[in-house]
Amino acid sequence: MSAEHTPPAGDLPAGSGRAPLDRPAYGFPRRWWTFLAEHPPPGAATINRRWRSPLRGPWLTSVYGLALLVGLPLVFLTGLLDYLAYSPQFGQAFPGDVGWLRLPPFDWPTRPSWLFRLTQGLHVGLGITLIPIVLAKLWSVLPKLFDWPPARSVAQVLERLSLLLLVGGILFEIATGLLDIQYAYLFGFDFYTAHYFGAWVFVAALVVHVSLRLGRMRTALRARSLGRELATPRPATRAEPPDPDRLVAARPGPATMSRRGALALVGGLSLLVAALTVGQHFDGPWRRTALLLPRGRQPGTGPTGFPINRTAAAAGVGAADTGPGWRLTLRSGGHSVTVDRPGLLAMAQHTVTLPIACVEGWSTVQTWTGVRLRDLAALVGADGITAAHVRSLEKAGLFRQAALQANQVLDPDSLLALRVNGVDLTLDHGYPARVIVPALPGVHCTKWVTEIEFRGRAGG
Fold this sequence. Notes:
Elements (H helix, E strand, L loop, with lengths): L29 H9 L5 H5 L9 H28 L29 H15 L1 H10 L1 H4 L8 H28 L9 H33 L2 H6 L27 H17 L36 H4 L3 H4 L5 E5 L2 E5 L1 H6 L3 E8 L5 E10 H7 L2 E11 L8 E5 H5 L4 E6 L2 E2 L9 E3 L12 E10 L2
Parallel strand pairs: 1-10
Antiparallel strand pairs: 1-2, 3-4, 4-7, 5-6, 5-10, 7-8, 7-9
């Protein structure tokens, strides 16, 4: 897209709709505006002379903005739902202490069983898909980032601050989110805490910015026909009339692309990114197309060839920990029962087909066989269950233990799984036993389970 040029403010052509230097502008005293205009930072004039693309203007900026106004709040809301899925009431959602940003207490449901698969898939997948639109939107408003003076009224000061937080917030969320799903932990801070608070900063800036700009966006969208723009070829593409926000180049150059081409390019890139991401949700050949999600690809073949988040070696769990000497300890109040794997296999077995979804966005549907968690609770005499705490053989890590809500323990499809797709679990998939609960985040479907403590009233 072409470079651009904006002449010095004192050389603006008549009828440009921009305030000359000898007038008060937007409510600030004239001497402030004049002083700032006459003392630009080094290189400001040179940078401004580069903005010559005739595509930039209120209409194209508003089209990109409308797409983001629909998509980004959905990414934010699904992120909040995913946070709730981690049961923050048990102190196991990250970050744990969020102060007055604490969400209302909420028991995450087990139905539909694909709920977390949907919310986390949308959060990651839609977030990635919107990246080309975010970059196009930033390109369309790039001159505003170098506008001088930066503000000429209190309203513009607020707008510029909201824009700074908006741009900084979305770039921070995109960068840290992409690094996280690529397992490239390059930050010198806790990802979960920074991503959570960064999202709130971004949304607050978005609300302020939209409240200030919504009227102009509506006017800009109504000013030009989408059908007419899509029918306009590159040779007939012209700059929009001068606008008070100075998005339109004062001396536009020839178009190197039509607005139709710009929308097609950005839309095509978003579709391409989506195509390289969506395979993470499908088992079989489709999963090989998930090139942007390293852990979402198919790692192997056969009944246990589906993805995993953490290997046994990475968790420090070996064959010696899971051999014949392995035992599961069940506790409730002052009661405890110890059972080995043959003992579990001798209990009533149930088979369910359930998805498992990871925080990085990938998911898979498999058929699991094992003992119902509520049957294990009955075995130890647990009654009036309020929660269950599951502990793993894993020695370290954020998710070596998990708390389950009462509805998650009592759901008839909640299992301590011993087999998957008709075969024994592999060590990487949690052998000798792992938890599987409908709609539960994958990291809380604890692998290599060694103890379950049921909280409630102990039976007789």
